[in-house]
Structure of O-methyltransferase-like protein:
Amino acid sequence: MTNTDNKIYQPSKMIHIRPTHLLSIPDDFEEEIKFFMPPAQGAGSLTTIESVMLLKLLRCVEPTFIFEFGTYKGYTTRLLLENLPESNVEGERIYTLDLPEIDNIDFQGGDKNLALEALNFKRKYLNSSKKNLVKQIFQDSMTLDAAQYTKKFQYIFVDANHEVSYVKKDTENSLKMLADSPSCIIWHDYGNREFPQLTQYLDDLASDMTLYHVEGTMLVFHLKGVEVPVRKS
Ligand SMILES: C[S@@+](CC[C@H](N)C(=O)[O-])C[C@H]1O[C@@H](n2cnc3c(N)ncnc32)[C@H](O)[C@@H]1O
């Protein structure tokens, strides 16, 4: 801790790892994956390396149930759906939530445009033969009742509204909804200059729980029950 001009500077406990550290975790899966190139326009979607990191975490926790905050055009929903590990469980296994309308929602940065784009878009996962495994929820995440999903999801992706009060609420709900090990919560947009309070929130949260930032990406994750190799240099 440093004290400069009476300001207390507490360095974040965020652990910064390289993609290769996450990729080096052993898993039981075949090499082959089903992949979709990210759209050229980029905004609102994951990059190629972020998509691969999400798939690696999918292999690490082998989820029965997934929750995604922020469906947008359904790119990530489709990616997770097409690579979802087998399960004996019948019915919907990926729950993905987005807004039914944008009235009375606070937006920061480019989020309002993304929400407008998403409203009447035919989501990508609807083209999949496995689309019946997806449950689409239309609701403001601020009103989500997490109690109905206590400890249900092994894999949670927080990528809806990036204004910090929503991120905080979605995170608190995620912690209630997170299943026992192995399981993970992943956040997007860490380090995004449009959302400085989001980055600060996650940096602060790293004091309370182990959080990893994957360098070269805007992904932060918390992983329960699986060891992440610690950086040596
Ligand atoms: C960055 S996009 C999600 C991208 C998506 N996860 C992917 O990887 O393709 C953010 C989405 O969150 C939705 N959103 C914004 N505010 C929301 C809120 N309060 N509740 C639920 N969804 C919200 C927007 O409509 C938008 O579709």
Remarks:
- The longest strand covers residues 94-98.
- Residues 44-46, 68, 70-72, 75-76, 97-99, 105, 111, 114-115, 118, 140-142, 159-161, 166 surround S-adenosylmethionine (CB under 6 Å).
- The chain has six helices and ten strands.
